[in-house]
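Before drawing any conclusions, I looked closely at one protein's amino acid sequence and its backbone structure tokens, quoted below without any editing.
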Amino acid sequence: MAKPITINFATSNKNKVKEFKQILEPEIKVNHIKISYPEMRSDNPEEIAKMSAEMLANRLRKTVVVEDSGLFINALNDFPGTCSAYIHKRIGLQGILKLMGGVKERECTYKSAVAYCEHGKKAKSFLGEEKGFVAENVRGNYGFGHDPIFVPEGSNKTYGEVKNCEEVKKFRRRAVLKLREYLLKK
């Protein structure tokens, strides 16, 4: 019988761990490595995820998986983008909405980049995206990050208004499913 696959998911965000487990388990066990690490700077979430995975795989001397995501708002030249977590801590959802005050074009893309890296090797990355728009105000108490202001295409509700939003979020699910497919073929 084949040994079950286990990944070491390096993150300090327990909400992301919950989402990964819902998507991957039981076929792929998610071992959470609670760790904070300096986030690289780039406009490309895949580049950040790969650099972070390589750095952590070499530092921890084991195979790791990391995830970097962000909300890319068209009218704000893709801001906050890869700086989403930092901006969320600094100005919050109300700050983003204030920047969007009077802006009619509210299209955006939620992006998630998942990177897998074995110690001493180059990382592989998997990108998931979901189009939508920025709501006029904060709506709902579910999810985390920008979920209460992100309305996915084809919906009139923010992720923050959807009770089990971690089960329907497409951007991260798409990236994690690509990782899953890669690992099951390995």
Q: What stands out?
A: The longest strand covers residues 107-117. The mean pLDDT is 94. The chain has five helices and seven strands. The beta strands are 5-11, 28-34, 64-73, 79-81, 107-117, 124-134, 150-152.
